Amino acid sequence: TKRLQGSAAQALSKQSQVLGLTNPRFFRASQALGNKFTVFVDGNPIEVDPSYTIYQACTEAGVEIPRFCYHERLSVAGNCRMCLVEVEGAPKPIASCATQVMPNQKISTKSETTRIARGGVMEFLLANHPLDCPICDQGGECDLQDIAQVYGYGEGRYMEYKRAVEDKNISPIIKTSMTRCIHCARCIRFTEQIGGEFSLGQVGRGKINEISTYVESMITHELSGNVVDLCPVGALNNLPYSFQARPWELKSNYSVDIMDGLGSNIDVHTRGSDLLRVLPRINEEVNEEWISDKSRHSFDGLKKQRLSVPLLRKQDGSFYDLTWEEAIQLAATKLSEAKGAQIHGKIGQFNDIETLVAYRDLMHRLGTENLDVRTNAPYLNSDFRSQYLMNSRVTGIDETD
């Protein structure tokens, strides 16, 4: 037992190394271990790296472990306890996300002890969770729903009043339903470690514990929308998308974002001809699995806020609607009033030939030869990949000195 306690302490101290947030002392110790060793997952031997956690070893073995708080790109929290597994020699089930593997360790993910432990954790999570599934925007893509179906019990034993939490106004693009929160703290860790802000945190202890912004402030960093994707329940939702559609009604369309200089990979969700939301698509070389708020919500300006009818400005600066016939007639009148020498036309070189010819004919009909079409734009040689990649990948920034 003492040897096991010592091993657990050593594993917990090295969890930062697993995340890449390494303390040099632990990093050297891991490097000194050198070769891989064998662990047994449900009786099957597998070679793993010494720096692996039990969760990573199980994933390597193709075994699915339920989790809520753990995320591959965030630090280990060990809050939810849903990833409990049975380890031979341990006095009780162990949180696999926060425990490092040991040589010849025998891990059981399907034992009766593991099943009972996970069922108990799920029962505690559901004790205060409201039955909002029919009206929750997370329905159909909710981790709590899916895991409860597999590991939960058919009925609850908790007969007291459920805990309720006041909703927070933390962002104009994030809708909160904090009564649904299971305190996985993914949003807190993302905001601190990826967003670079310390605006979110946990206040209170025990049954009064809440996720809050401390002084009722707002989240202001440009990646805030990603906490909606990270939230495993319906506590944080996409406000503009709220009550728009269910996931099974949407069609996925892979695309590339043009709102940033990275070319982030995105997944555009549509229903019929309507574009309803934009989600990140995983690309380790470019955007990992994050996108900016501008990338996520800019389509709204091209859909709901675009001009659908011609407008004419009044003397006081306000606008009123015109019909298309009135607008075309007014534009033709204004053009005919201008003298040819006063008109100067510009058109970009990337337009098609038909558009260029039509534009030239229009300028000639208006009596002007002042037409600017520049075809001698700076030439970017693309013979070698390095000439348009600036000699480095995005991921190479982490490796620079």
TrEMBL record:
GO cellular component: membrane
Ranges where the 2Fe-2S ferredoxin-type domain occurs: 35-113
Residue span, 4Fe-4S His(Cys)3-ligated-type domain: 113-152
Pfam family, one: Molybdopterin
Gene Ontology MF annotations: 4 iron, 4 sulfur cluster binding; metal ion binding; NADH dehydrogenase (ubiquinone) activity; oxidoreductase activity, acting on NAD(P)H
Family under the similarity heading: Belongs to the complex I 75 kDa subunit family.
The protein's name: NADH dehydrogenase subunit 11
Organism, scientific name: Strombidium inclinatum
Species classification: Eukaryota, Sar, Alveolata, Ciliophora, Intramacronucleata
